[in-house]
């Protein structure tokens, strides 16, 4: 056999031997990593929060209800999925003014109630704090003391009178109107879905424009005040002004108009003030109502005939007891 043929025969033998070995040997595989060696899974994408509930009858700010804390810098604050209240105290030493601004957001119109002392119309008066606790009201302010027109929950209890010059009306869709006595039409208001109405005054702001009356009579005197303002359905403001003190002289009509305009109110009215100028939060008075006289040792203010009340009320008018709710007050800061 030639040398060339010997090389070819040797190469063929090597190839045949390699093929035989390959058929008998399992391939080597990389072992799977142990649990300790495995890389952490990437976090799942953040899912946008869904509404806490479906819309129900009476919702007036379902899509606009704030998702943020409206009371982050407030002195008193309550935040829930149905009601957000933030109260801020303001003091101007130069002007000798002390007042409290309660910003109110509610998802459903039923959270805005009008209550009578002792639970019924014409059943006397009641201490404001006891009134608020009985109603489980997170926020409460004095109303009209049942003077002039009184409409609560759509029921007319007292007609318009000729003494009080302005009306504030709340409708089923959450909107409000502040009108002069002459401009208010009860039948027209009822046809629009009137829920509550109070008659007092003076009118402060209507359709975003200040009342420019030449004279405001007795309201030209500075005094303790309660004011109610409206921004849009579901968004309101209540203001309590301290008075009859050296450091807090109170406000007259022009002062009130200026303040409510500065707050951006679309509608605003003055309610019953003086000794009735009381604002409560979680059943406690937050402002400093005046005393009946300088020598009076008792706390300021007086018992009230009616109140504006804000809480997470249900269809039957019930709300969670205040001692079951979480809120922030200055003492907790």
Question: How would you describe what is shown here?
Answer:
The chain is globular and about 50 Å long. It has helices spanning 3-24, 128-134, 186-191, 253-262, and strands at 76-79, 83-92, 97-106, 112-116, 139-142, 150-152, 155-158, 166-171, 176-180, 194-200, 203-206, 209-210, 225-232, 235-241, 267-270, 279-281, 284-285, 306-310. 14% of the residues lie in helices and 28% in strands. Mean pLDDT is 86; it is low at 1-50.
Give the class from helix and strand content and strand pairing: alpha+beta
**Global morphology:** globular
Sheet with most strands: 8 strands, antiparallel
Percentage of residues in strands: 25-35%
The strand line-up of the biggest sheet is: 1-2-3-14-13-15-11-12
Q: What is the arithmetic mean of pLDDT?
A: 86
Q: What is the helix tally?
A: 4
| Low-pLDDT runs | 1-50
Descriptors:
4 helices; globular; five-stranded antiparallel sheet; disordered N terminus; alpha+beta; 333 residues
What topology does this entry show?
Layout: H1 3-24, E1 76-79, E2 83-92, E3 97-106, E4 112-116, H2 128-134, E5 139-142, E6 150-152, E7 155-158, E8 166-171, E9 176-180, H3 186-191, E10 194-200, E11 203-206, E12 209-210, E13 225-232, E14 235-241, H4 253-262, E15 267-270, E16 279-281, E17 284-285, E18 306-310
Antiparallel strand pairs: 1-2, 2-3, 3-14, 4-18, 5-16, 5-18, 6-7, 6-10, 8-9, 8-10, 11-12, 11-15, 13-14, 13-15, 16-17
How would you sum up this structure in a few lines?
The protein is α+β, with helices and mostly antiparallel strands and 333 residues long. Helix content is 14%, strand content 28%. A hairpin with a 2-residue loop joins β11 (203-206) and β12 (209-210).
